[in-house]
Amino acid sequence: MRLDFRHLCILYGRNCDLYGCDVDTKANMHPADINALVQKAGGSLSALARAHRKHPSSFWHSLRRPIPIANRAIATFLGRKPHDLWPEWFDERGHRRG
Length: 98
What we know:
Strand content: under 5%
Number of helices: 7
Oligomer: single chain
Helix content: 40-55%
Order of helices and strands: HHHHHHH
């Protein structure tokens, strides 16, 4: 059986916007994918932390657990909403899920 991107998104919980399929997954993007997007945009998590006067480790940790200030800063830098990157942690309005 041949797997296409849609199947990979379902199996691995990837954000389908990156891969061009139309499956609606509700899983967070992988931390390495988010870090790669930041680097492709010409930034780094450390530089974002310095710009927001936060410790760099808070931005690294925000890829694995919700830290709203850091998550919103990363999403804004990428021109996205926090929900687009972390749908398990943020609702469509950008508010933290309880």
